[in-house]
């Protein structure tokens, strides 16, 4: 099977998000112009580069996280984990601008150090970011799509000490991050395995 714009009837739902799986969840903290802290999950989210460390999320319509990040030029990322899955889900509720999802989801808003935006204190890891780009996305014809992306440069990294293992690595098997799949499905990262790069490259890459 293959198709372009018209999906065959046998595919009840667009499988795009199931094919691009798993997607890490960008649990985005932001602050609105009245100073109210906002929190929402975004699975159109990715690490974009390292050194400088950059992350990107995208919004289907100009949602609060996008507007706040574009206006304040700052946002935070908190790692969504299996333990925090219900709070993560609750934070996706469409609350009025005057209400904070941190409070509604029963989470503690830890103040940012380099940015004036809080992150989830209960999360094993969080990133403070400065916005480098926040724009509406155009399609291949240059037509605006009402989809918006935000790229942020990481200016501070938080890791709770108990999640750093004896090898000095962030302990993913302890943190158990969750990822978004297609439909209503999620996955938990718990099966971690290593693979060396091809001979000759590995020493350079490890340096
Ligand atoms: C796991 C998960 C992932 C989501 N990913 C996205 C996304 O990538 N883009 C989007 O626009 N909305 C996404 N949503 C929905 C938003 O979280 C929801 O619309 C939220 O109310 C937006 O909040 P805000 O207006 O405070 O930014 C997702 C929801 C969940 C539960």
Itemize the secondary structure elements and their pairings.
Layout: H1 16-19, E1 23-24, E2 26-31, E3 37-42, E4 45-49, E5 54-60, H2 64-72, E6 74-79, H3 85-90, H4 101-104, E7 109-110, E8 119-120, E9 125-138, E10 144-159, H5 172-175, E11 178-180, E12 186-188, H6 202-206
The chain binds flavin mononucleotide.
- The domain tally reads 1
Q: What is the CATH architecture term? A: Roll
The fraction of residues in strands falls at: 25-35%
Stated plainly, the CATH topology is called Pnp Oxidase, Chain A
Number of strands: 12
What does this structure look like?
- It is a single chain.
- The protein has 6 helices and 12 strands.
- By secondary structure, the chain is α+β, with helices and mostly antiparallel strands.
- It has one domain (17-206): Pnp Oxidase, Chain A.
- The structure holds flavin mononucleotide.
- Flavin mononucleotide binds next to strand 3, strand 5 and helix 2.
- Flavin mononucleotide (FMN) is lined by residues 25, 38, 40-44, 59-60, 63-65, 89, 92, 94, 180.
Compose a concise summary of this entry.
This protein is 15% helix and 35% strand.
What attributes characterize this protein structure?
15% helix; 3-stranded antiparallel β-sheet; 12 strands; 7-stranded antiparallel β-sheet; Pnp Oxidase, Chain A; binds flavin mononucleotide; alpha+beta; 207 residues
């Amino acid at each position: 099977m293959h198709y372009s714009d018209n999906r065959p009837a046998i595919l009840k739902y667009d499988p795009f998000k199931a094919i691009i799986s798993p997607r890490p969840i960008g649990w985005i903290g932001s602050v609105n112009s009245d100073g109210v802290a906002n929190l929402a999950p975004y699975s159109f989210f990715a690490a974009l580069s390292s050194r400088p460390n950059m992350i990107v999320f995208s919004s289907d319509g100009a949602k609060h996280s996008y507007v706040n990040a574009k206006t304040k030029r700052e946002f935070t990322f908190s790692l969504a984990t299996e333990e925090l899955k219900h709070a993560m889900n609750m934070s996706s509720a469409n609350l009025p601008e005057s209400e904070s999802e941190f409070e509604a989801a029963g989470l503690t808003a830890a103040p940012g150090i380099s940015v004036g935006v809080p992150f989830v204190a209960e999360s094993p890891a969080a990133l403070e970011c400065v916005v480098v780009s926040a724009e509406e996305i155009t399609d291949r014809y240059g037509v605006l799509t009402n989809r918006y992306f935000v790229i942020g440069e990481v200016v501070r990294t938080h890791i709770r000490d108990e999640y750093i293992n004896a090898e000095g690595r962030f302990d993913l098997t302890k943190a158990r991050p969750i990822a978004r799949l297609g439909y209503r499905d999620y996955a938990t990262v718990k099966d971690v395995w290593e693979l060396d790069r091809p001979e000759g490259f590995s020493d350079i890459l490890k340096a």
